[in-house]
Amino acid sequence: MDIVQAVGRALRPAAGKKMGYVIVPILHDADAKPKDIFESEDFQEILTTLRALAANDDRIIRIFPSHLPR
User: Fold this and answer.
1) Non-local CB neighbours of 22 within 8 Å, separated by 6+ positions
2) With pLDDT > 90 as the criterion, what percentage of the chain qualifies?
3) Which residues have a Cβ under 8 Å from the Cβ of 12 and sit 6 or more positions away?
4) What Rg do the C-alpha atoms of the chain give, in angstroms?
5) Kind and range of the H or E run holding 38
6) What span, in angstroms and rounded, lies between the C-alpha atoms of 22 and 56?
7) pTM, entire model
8) What angle do CA 28, 33, 34 make, to 5 degrees?
9) What is the C-alpha separation between 57 and 61, in angstroms, rounded?
């Protein structure tokens, strides 16, 4: 639920606001490669949540990095 609230806050318009950011820390081993992180269960859960939110708000599709693994 925290990620939903964070994304909602980032997308909420505000005077003078040009961009919103959501930073979600994911703990991993020091020797993990990016592929290991992107394929981790934690990261996949975040992607699943963002995709579900995108079904209701097309701004997420426009903003969400298309280069991330699907």
Assistant:
1) 3, 6, 7, 10
2) 6
3) 20
4) 13
5) helix 34-38
6) 18
7) 0.55
8) 90
9) 8
